[in-house]
Amino acid sequence: MAGRLGLCVRHSQKLLTNFRHLQASSRDILQSPTFHPHLQRTLCTTKADVQDDVKTKCVRLEERSLVQVAGSDTIPFLQGLVTNDVTCLNFENRVMYTMMLNVQGRVLYDLLMYNLQRTPDSPPCLLLECDHSVVTQLIKLLKMYKIRKKVDVSSVTDEYTVWALLPGTTDPPAFVSDSGISVTDPRLPTLGNRVVLKSGTNLVFDCVEGTPEDYHTHRYKLGVGEGVNDLPPGNSLPLESNIAYLNG
């Protein structure tokens, strides 16, 4: 028994001696002038750690069209027809996401509303962005509820173009001018900017041209439905369409 205990003690002392030698060697390496601490970080760097300069992509959305609603009763007229609070759409808050529902409470049209007021005191003038295939039906529905309201409803599809600016390394600019409007998408900031320009006006942003597939892929990744293909009229409920998640 004593022999075995002595053997264990000798092995323990040998291991302790080797460990001390390793510690001393490590200190010598760290103190060596040829050792560079940043070398480890360099070797461990991955592609994910390197952020390239990604330019904003601009995509012309030909499948989206615009309907103009203008007049002194524009806000109270739309307030009872859509899911969002239209009174929050003002001179400072230029864009809003909302939906129109049928009498059963199912989604008819998904809309983006743009406020084009020049001054806080000027008459309201809103652009309603919708799927290009439902412009006629949307105008017909709005005029059916118009009754005696002082509003004018008309298609301005030929007067404006709709663009999406997919975010890159730098945020795309926001502006309101005589030529159009550029605002952060009200559904999700990660969708980038929505731009409405008068026909014939060119984009002057530092961006590269993208395709509709780039835009659709980007929003599908974020779980955002749009248009009659994703939201067939009269089929889905607002909550099934992520209306609360998308600020609608």
How would you portray this structure in words?
The protein is α+β, with helices and mostly antiparallel strands. It contains six helices and eleven strands. The radius of gyration is 31 Å and the shape is globular.
List keywords for this structure.
single chain, 248 residues, alpha+beta, 6-stranded mixed β-sheet, 5-stranded antiparallel β-sheet, 11 strands, 28% helix, 25% strand
Order of helices and strands: HHEEHEEEHEEEEEEHH
Dominant shape: globular
How many strands, what sense, and barrel or not for the largest sheet?
6 strands, mixed
Radius of gyration using CA atoms only: 31 Å
- Classify the helix fraction into a percent range: 25-40%
**N- and C-termini, Cα separation:** 82 Å
Spatial ordering of strands, largest sheet: 8-9-10-7-1-11
Query: How many strand units?
Result: 11
Mean pLDDT: 83
- Strand content is 25-35%
Which structural class do the helices and strands define? alpha+beta
Describe the structure in brief.
The chain is α+β, with helices and mostly antiparallel strands and 248 residues long. It has helices at residues 2-31, 38-44, 74-79, 135-146, 212-221, 227-230, and strands at 56-60, 64-70, 95-101, 107-115, 125-131, 152-155, 160-166, 175-177, 180-184, 193-198, 207-209. It starts with a helix and ends in an 18-residue tail after the last helix.
What is the element layout, followed by pairings?
Elements: H1 2-31, H2 38-44, E1 56-60, E2 64-70, H3 74-79, E3 95-101, E4 107-115, E5 125-131, H4 135-146, E6 152-155, E7 160-166, E8 175-177, E9 180-184, E10 193-198, E11 207-209, H5 212-221, H6 227-230
Parallel strand pairs: 1-11
Antiparallel strand pairs: 1-7, 2-5, 2-6, 3-4, 4-5, 7-10, 8-9, 9-10
